[in-house]
Amino acid sequence: MDFKASLALIAPEILLSLSALALLLVAAWSRNSSRLVSILAAVALGGAAFLAAPALCAGAMGPDTAAFGGQFAADAFASFSKILIYVAAIGCLMIAPTFFDRNGAMRPEYPVLVLLATLGMGIMVSATDFITLYVGLELNSLAAYVLASFMRTDDRSAEAGLKYFVLGALASGILLYGISLVYGFTGATSFEGARAALAGELSMGALFGLIFVLAGLAFKISAVPFHMWTPDVYEGAPTPVTTFFSTAPKVAAIALTARVALDAFGMQADAWRQIVIFAALASIILGALGAIGQSNLKRLLAYSSINNVGFILIGLAAATVGGVSAMLVYLAIYVAMSLGSFVAVLMLRDAEGRQLEGIADIAGLSRTKPVLALCVAAMMLSLAGIPPLFGFWGKLVVFQAAVEADLAVLAAIGIAASVIGAFYYIKIVKVMYFDEPADVVKGGSDWAHWLILGVTTLFVSPLGYLLTGPLGDLADRAAAALFFVA
């Protein structure tokens, strides 16, 4: 494939790169251009989603989607992931200005950092070479470290950024060491070359390389036992940044993990499946148990994120087209649930406009803010997977894929463990509807918060089942593209 064709395949990344550079110049020239830069960044993300959509709709796969000598794949799987990432990033940009303006911390660099992080995520989900993978991962991570500590006057934000940086650097080192082992024992950095070299018996050195690579990626998806940073960073980072971390980077990291496992290590599924199953079950159980004693909503949602990653990994453990399709469906629903939940937290403010994060603060919310309480209840019950809310469908398709892949025991344990998680979600609903009103949530919310909360609430409501056909079809195309490349 010639250079011109390769450039056409990376059109979304080119658009985001040029937009980030242009908006950085605007930010440098005008320090009062935060909202304008945010709007233009959202437009750029929308344009990138528009450019990525044709590959998904056409189910693009195979050699025609490979760019730059097989280092980058603009297939349907990457397009599905990118569109989720771009939509989540747009939502996070919409909710940020009001929060940062209230704290006097909004600067035009914020949307530029989001654009650069999103650019890195796009490279991650399209990477078909370990070098490309690492470039995308570091581009995303470096922007994320700054975002976590964006409120320089807030000690919690600075602490979150430092913790994320130190642990992220450790995870990057582990990943890089794993990549070096894989290269040493396969002689290739491309996923295709590694897959071919690992077709026979797996050597001890290659096995260690596989384990280290998956360990490094496990940090990025907050899977147990590499989850320790998540509650602290989610609590300490500014809430719009936490919202971003829980959605777009999560999609990118999970999609990247699936591509590495099924493409680069596809011939050794039995070797890595055991690791994924352990991470899935441990994440489900620890995420559920860890959330029970939390009094801070952001920390609770951090453990919820760990819990949900476990369910997503069940789809990956199946290592089938149906399993990957179920994983993508769950991922799309999870993004909506997570985005809506954190937007609801953003809307909890007292009369002076201060952010409220305690579970005790929402006591009796149904009597003081009934619409907000209803939306929060919908999010919590959907995260718990309680029918008829749409979150139930995400869990159902994942468990069904596991059963079809002869992993019925894994599905059964996952179903049993999901009951533990339902406890703390229902606890939130109980506090809002049955406890005496704390009557501290007084602040109003702007139209962007209500718009996103309303759209996500409708998505996770029973109306979401109207999308099962189109969403399932797109996920099937994306999954088929991944297995075709593999």
Distance between the termini: 19 Å
Number of domains: 1
Please estimate the helix content. Answer: over 70%
The average pLDDT is 87
Q: Please state the oligomeric state of the protein chains shown.
A: single chain
The helix/strand series, from N terminus to C terminus, equals: HHHEEHHHHHHHHHHHHHHHHH
Structural class: mainly alpha
Main location: membrane
Subcellular location: Cell membrane; Endomembrane system; Membrane
Transmembrane segments: 6-29, 36-63, 83-100, 112-137, 164-185, 197-219, 271-293, 300-321, 327-349, 370-393, 405-426, 447-467
Family: Belongs to the complex I subunit 2 family.
Question: What report would you give on this structure?
Answer:
This protein is mainly alpha-helical and 486 residues long. The protein has one domain (3-483). The protein is built from 20 helices and two strands. It has helices at 3-9, 11-29, 34-57, 76-102, 109-126, 130-148, 155-186, 191-197, 204-220, 229-236, 239-264, 269-292, 297-318, 321-346, 365-368, 370-383, 391-404, 408-434, 447-460, 468-485, and strands at 66-67, 72-73. A two-stranded antiparallel sheet has the order 1-2. It is globular and about 65 Å long. It catalyses: a quinone + NADH + 5 H(+)(in) = a quinol + NAD(+) + 4 H(+)(out).
